[in-house]
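Summarise what follows for lecture notes:
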Amino acid sequence: MEVQILNQHNSVVNSFLAELRDVKVQKDSMRFRKNIERVGWFLGYEASKCLDFNTQSVNTPLAMAEEKTFSNALVVASVLRAGMPLHNGVLEVFDRAENAFISAYRHHPNQNDNFEIAIEYFAAPSIKGKTLLLADPMLATGQSLVAVYKAIKKQRT
């Protein structure tokens, strides 16, 4: 697994991230979701750099050309509901990927600030021999991402 921190380099993504963090923009639901989707496009692009590629012959109008295309069978998994715009953005890049969905939410068993992440639902195709891209915006602590990863690993290994 390779960690990509998108805002360490100057790019248009920094503008989207700034708006996502801006309290005023967060009140504009449509713009907030669109910016998460846009970040998904760039995350998909960055993730593509870690995939396996093969050379493919392509018949162009002028001649045959050799192009490198990724060879991984992909499954894009999202944490319901917050991950959906991010999922859509990643799917814009990987439009042939299969889809998986998992629910995760904060459960407060003692009605205080302490919580655990509850996982109740996981629907996915077989991920055996495939590359799983987990799309979760990690809006707070990142605990849901860790819990989801562990749940998927437990069910699929």
The longest strand covers residues 98-107. DSSP finds five helices and six strands in the chain. The helical segments are 13-21, 23-26, 29-48, 84-93, 143-156. The beta strands are 53-59, 64-70, 74-80, 98-107, 116-123, 131-135.
